[in-house]
Amino acid sequence: MGVGIEVINLNAWYGTNHTLQDINLNIPANHATALIGPSGCGKSTFVRCLNRMHETNPIGRVTGTVRIGDLDIYKDAKPVEIRRRVGMVFQRPNPFPTMSIYDNVAAGLKLNGYSSRRVLDEIVEKSLKNSALWDEVKDDLRKKSGASLSGGQQQRLCIARALAVDPEVLLMDEPASALDPVSTSKIEDLIFQLKSQYTIVIVTHNMQQAARVAEKTGFFLNGRMVEFDSTHKIFTNPSDKRTEDYITGRFG
Amino acid sequence: MRTGQNTLRAKIRTLTDHAATGLAILSTILVVAPLVAIFVYLIFKGASSLSLDFFIKIPKPEGESGGGMANAIVGSGILLGLASLIGVPIGIAGGIFLSEFGRGTKLANAIRFTADVLNGVPSIVMGVAVYALVVKPSRFMPFSGHFSAFSGGVALGIMMIPTVCRTTEEMLLMVPHAVREAALGLGVPNWRSVLSITVKTASPGIITGCMLAFARVAGETAPLIFTALGNSFWSTNLDQPIAALPLQIYVYAISPYDDQHRLAWAGALVLIALIVIAVSLVRYVTSRGVLKGAS
After folding, report:
1. Contact A27/A199 with Cβ under 8 angstroms?
2. What value of ipTM does the predicted structure carry?
3. CATH 3.30.420.40 fits B54-287, yes or no
4. Which CATH class is domain A5-247?
């Protein structure tokens, strides 16, 4: 089951560049939340703060509080533990090129020391079914490399890989921006199915996509969160002038 | 008018294209030709002196005809095995440090600089250095106080380190950042991600680097003169002087006897053939299990 995320006074820097300023918001459990905004507004940095990936950059720095469920992730836990609970799907599909499809999905578990073949088989099948890829790959699980799949399939493979470690939250950083419309709609269908089991945060440049998949939407601009409300309200009757300008295409 | 110009331009383009392709082919031939020439000449000169005796007998005393290089073939194998045991792990570990853990640090820059200098050190200097460090001291070092197979392996091993180290670093740097992020994003600890993902992804290139280093030291004579020394008799003892193909070739090539000249040619041919076989074997073994569509 998914858990809610509470963000209090989050600030982030790249070197001296203050990328995120005083972000406060509550992301509801078992819903999809979309983050929109022009390039460079900090939305990717924001999701990278939710699983402590931001600090893997040598010049990245974070202050503030992020609670995932009951866990204060910057106080009570190590980065590796959090990243197992908060899965991430990146902008460009990034399967492990030397691994088979099976090993790609099992990677998170295998590399963390799980080895029971029977359990792994089960989890790999379940994860690939959850990411709607099973029927397309079940015959070549161990024969084909993850890199041999098409772009859309690779991204669903990456989703399966993230699901296999059984996270509570799934962060998606523009998961469909490198994909064609057919693959994009498959990913969107997938988000619809997955949000019953996971809390989903999706960064997107595509406002129609945000409107289609998310219950809540946040609008970021210049490192600040301008507005956070139900998707319907953001797209029909935003309270902030800047939000309205952005969604009506006046800038960005 | 316009069309005329266009066809003229098209003709010039086609000509330039052909000229560039022709130049590329010519350059390739220029590069490959000496290699082929050496190999053909070696086969021409060496093959006639090859016999079963060459592979199973040890050298005959000066002036007597016949005999072989069995001891040198085995000796070279032992020396190269020892060198690889020293050079490959240290080189790969160094490369991993340079690319994954020490990037940008002063220590890493110092190591990279040292490796590049070491790569440029003449091999005879390496022989003298190992003579001073391993052959000469007699009280504290094992295998020391006299010429030995061990010291020869050390000299060749040290020579392998910089090549292995720098190619490992280069190959690791070529692994896309996205692949590392994918592993970290799964909650895999950094060290584990480096060893199981980054190094594995770069492994074909790293293996090529090791093979390059191996092939390079396989033909080295100078570092062995002050260390392994050479041996006319059977010896597989690490604590004793040992024969090696390049050393034996050197000794026979400058001897006054025609028979030994012929053996030297055969030795050179065998040395190159063994390098080709070793490299192909490693390539074959490591390429098994590579998946369809893996990049």
Report:
1. yes
2. 0.89
3. no
4. alpha beta
